[in-house]
Write a structure and sequence with these properties.
Chain lengths: ~550, ~325
């Protein structure tokens, strides 16, 4: 894989070999962290949002600029904007205030961050990432620390500090792994969210986040797919399914009176390999005869507003309930996605509820009441499918996935912002025969980010992405060597987009799958023709023409 | 290493203040009565202020860090502690952090090996050192209660008896004295010996450790080496406990250094990272149940946000939608 935005794998491997067993890169003996330089170079910064995107969103300071510019053309009075913004957020978020006040710098988080493990840059230790803000907070918001400026590690807010914030709060994927280990429960994701809000106030931003936000606002999804194209894409999958299985599935769009509204990330509709996961959903719904509809308006499960500001998160999320109400469905079923599920699970009902117009979710097939979702009225597809399998409602042939040796990647947000670990594993174990867990320090609540979450999946950010994804790749390499694993199964659309290049870089030969793609492979459909290929048209093991007698 | 020297010098200077004040200024009353009351007042009012200041700030979103399986389908085994589904278990979770340092128990150490590959080893030393330090300090503080009571309350007596079960010295040796000193030494050395810790530590991280170290060392030397006469100390403590203002009888200057450093520590708590003793209870990632889909969490300042409605969307795309056969509200 060659790319001007990343080192060749061999060069990066060499860098790691040279510094092992150390994680930190470079020497900083006798130096203070605030003296370490901040260098923007190819591969470590995302392009800023285009002026027209900012105009569309009514966001501050539209201009043409680059992180490598000396002058970032910050708006007049930007210091006051940041300071007032901080003050306002300290007032509105107890989390922010408590996290500014109670860190003891014990260092437990230091080597828990995938970006620190991959870059060796000390400012990627979560404690120092937070100190980038805390140092300003101590200077501007606490009298005592201001008096003892040097002693307490306080510093003045300058344009260089803004550059540093931009770099390091865009080298955090809000994955919350550090917060699992923190004895105070300090969550860097929360601090990153605050700082990104602040940076947006002065026009310091990321096009890979704000362009999808603008798209989502206008067309209903991040990819900017207009309704007719959205429908056409899914209908072309219907054709593919028919060709492969002989079964005609019949999704409906914007249909009033359907029982269930299904919402999934638009990556599943438009991106490879997400589309195969979508085909899995379509097969599943057809298999059980679900009365559901898909909306072209609420056509995005994900929410890049979350990486922008809480107001933007609310704005984008509002479409889900708005559309569910308009269509008169009973409840909402959500597809596989990471941060989408943190928003749905921890924010949606607070921001846009109460959803009184919906009913408590009940599976129409098994009668199971999803009491854990009784207020938000949105159920995760893995919960839904696990319940179907448990009740024996699916006809599955796990042998149809025998050509895959799988492992499972927990998505950060589903793991640490929702707590769903067992359902996807239960589903996976029922649809395939070969599954091996990665080492325990790299799964479940300790799972490692793909390295590209929270809107950092940009091509021009490849160096940091490949480094940040290294801990995940290293764990995959482990099960690959030990158990010949060749298939990495995920329940996240960002993972499906970001893990393939990561695997090509670190573990060539490992393919990335969505969970429901494997469900789709394994489903024995009524009236299907003889299946010899999986949803990707790859031959299944033991189902070829020659294997008829088996 | 100015970052380390400065707080060390600060503690030495602070220790010299009562030494000079008592030896040359005869300021016994100031150091025995005035400063202790003042520092206790700063501690109580300061911590109250900090707690109220935190509590009055809203918690807009329910954001527990889920470290275990949520409560979902009946047959799925849940982790009630790491993904608490009710306030009671969330409280248990917080208390397990406070008393057992549960999250720190998970601590690992990452190393880069050939391949390259990352290897994670168990690293419980920080957990053990931290736990030893905090628990010893708590027992030592409780033990000191004996100075403030005419007759010793039973729990205090029991804790004290337990602490000196290794009856090897005269006066009886307290286990926590040794543990506290060992733990403080470990915590200082840990910051100095690791390059990551050296870089992330501030003067304000060393200062309280040195202060605790000095307080403990002086306390120990008073008990086992100089053997300070405890009668006037007890008299002073009883006076303070009754909010009295009687001038103390003469006590050794070492005692005043010990007392003064304790006063500095108490007054320092509300203005420093030592407020974590309150903050830990208020961390929204730990003290909230993971039930936000089952129960609506309210945000007191939930903003009114104008979003793009379906009607606006249809207005823009109606023709395209009709052409594609998608249902529309208006023709």
């Amino acid at each position: 894989m060659s790319n001007k935005y990343a080192l060749k794998p061999d060069e990066l491997k060499k860098e790691f070999e040279q510094k092992k067993p150390r994680i930190p890169k470079g020497e900083f003996a006798g130096k203070d962290w605030w003296d370490l330089p901040v260098e923007f170079r190819d591969g470590n910064w995302c392009f800023p949002a285009k002026p027209e995107v900012l105009d569309e969103l009514h966001f501050a300071n539209p201009r043409k600029w680059a992180a490598t510019d000396k002058d970032w053309q910050l708006p007049a009075g930007w210091e006051k904007t940041i300071r007032d913004g901080m003050k306002d957020r300290l007032k509105r978020f107890r989390s922010f205030k408590v996290f500014m006040d109670s860190c003891v710098r014990c260092g437990a988080c230091a080597d828990k961050c995938h970006f620190f493990l991959g870059t060796g840059d000390p400012k990627n230790m979560p404690v120092l990432r937070a100190e980038l803000v805390r140092s300003v907070y101590r200077n501007d918001f606490t009298t005592f620390a201001k008096i003892l400026k040097n002693f307490s590690g306080s510093r003045t807010l300058t344009a260089d500090v803004i550059k540093e914030w931009h770099m390091y709060f865009h080298q955090c994927t809000e994955c919350r792994r550090c917060s699992v280990f923190c004895p105070m429960g300090i969550d860097t994701a929360e601090i990153t969210m605050m700082v990104r809000e602040l940076l947006n106030l002065i026009g310091v931003n990321n096009n890979w986040i704000l362009a999808p936000v603008a798209n989502c606002n206008r067309t209903g999804n991040h990819l900017g797919i207009e309704p007719h194209t959205f429908e056409q894409n899914i209908m072309s999958m219907v054709d593919d399914i028919e060709e492969l299985t002989g079964v005609t599935v019949n999704p409906t769009f914007n249909r009033k009176g359907a029982e269930i509204l299904f919402i999934t990330p638009s990556g599943d509709v438009f991106g490879d390999p997400g589309v195969y996961t979508m085909m899995g959903y379509l097969l599943l719904f057809h298999h059980i005869g679900l009365d559901y509809t898909i909306s072209t308006y609420a056509s995005e499960g994900g929410n890049f507003g979350m990486f922008t500001s809480n107001e933007m998160m609310k704005k984008i999320n509002a479409k889900m309930y708005h559309e569910a109400k308009r269509l008169g469905v009973k409840w909402i079923l959500g597809g596989e996605c990471g941060h989408m599920w943190r928003v749905v699970h921890q924010y949606m009902n607070t921001m846009n509820g109460p959803a009184d117009f919906l009913k408590e979710p009940v599976s129409p097939i098994t009668g199971t009441k999803f009491t854990n979702a009784k207020a938000t009225k949105m159920v995760h597809i893995a919960e839904f499918t696990a319940d179907l399998i448990k009740h024996g409602k699916l006809k599955l042939d796990p042998k149809r996935n025998d050509h895959l040796r799988t492992t499972f990647h927990d998505s950060c947000n589903v793991a640490r912002g929702m707590g769903m670990f067992e359902e996807p594993r239960y589903v996976l174990n029922n649809v395939c025969n070969v599954f091996h867990e990665m080492p325990e320090n790299t799964i479940k609540e300790q799972t490692f980010c793909c390295g590209s979450g929270s809107g950092l999946n940009a091509e021009e950010f490849m160096d940091i992405r490949m480094r940040g994804g290294f801990p995940r790749a290293s764990a995959v390499a482990h099960v690959r060597e030990k158990h010949k694993v060749d298939s990495l199964v995920t329940i996240c659309a960002i993972d499906r987009a970001s893990l393939p290049p990561l695997m090509r870089y670190w573990n060539p030969g490992v393919t990335v799958y969505g969970l429901h793609e494997l469900v789709g492979n394994a489903l024995v459909m009524k009236g299907e023709k003889k299946r010899t290929e999986d949803l990707r048209e790859n031959p299944m093991a033991g189902f070829g023409e020659d294997d008829d007698d088996e | 290493m100015m970052k380390v020297l400065k707080p060390l010098i600060a503690v030495i200077v602070l220790a010299l203040i009562p030494y000079v004040g008592i030896t040359y200024g005869k300021l016994d009353f100031v150091f025995a009565i005035v400063i202790p009351y003042a520092s206790a007042a700063i501690l109580v009012l300061g911590m109250l202020f900090r707690l109220i200041d935190w509590i009055r700030r809203p918690v807009p979103f329910r954001i527990p860090t889920t470290c275990g399986q949520e409560k979902s389908l009946d047959w799925v085994k849940t982790n009630p502690l790491e993904s608490p589904s009710n306030p009671f278990m969330a409280a248990v979770r917080v208390l397990s952090e406070v008393f057992l340092f549960r999250s720190l128990f998970r601590n690992t150490k990452a190393e880069l090996h050939g391949g390259p590959k990352l290897v994670y080893g168990s690293y419980k030393w920080l957990w053990l050192g931290g736990l030893a330090f905090h628990w010893s300090m708590l027992v030592i503080v409780i033990r000191h209660a004996r100075f403030f009571f005419e007759t010793l309350p039973l729990p205090v007596e029991l804790i004290e008896m337990g602490d000196r079960f290794l009856d090897v010295t005269v006066p009886a040796f307290y286990l926590t004295d040794a543990l506290a000193l060992a733990a403080i030494t470990f915590l200082v050395l840990r910051r100095l010996s690791d390059e990551k810790m050296r870089l992330l530590s501030l003067s304000t991280d060393y200062f309280p450790l040195f202060l605790f170290g000095a307080i403990a060392a002086i306390g120990i030397s008073m008990r086992y080496v100089t053997k300070v006469n405890v009668m006037p100390v007890k008299a002073l403590a009883l006076t303070l406990a009754k909010f009295g203002f009687d001038a103390p009888e003469p006590i050794g200057v070492l005692f005043y250094v010990h007392l003064f450093l304790v006063c500095v520590l108490l007054a320092y708590i509300p203005f420093s990272k030592l407020v974590h003793m309150g903050g830990i209870f208020l961390s929204p990632t730990r003290n909230l149940p993971n039930d936000s889909r089952a129960k609506r969490h309210k945000n007191p300042w939930n903003p009114d946000i104008k979003f793009r409605t379906y009607a606006e969307y249809e207005d823009e795309f109606r023709e395209k939608m009709k052409k594609a056969g998608l249902p529309v509200e208006k023709q």
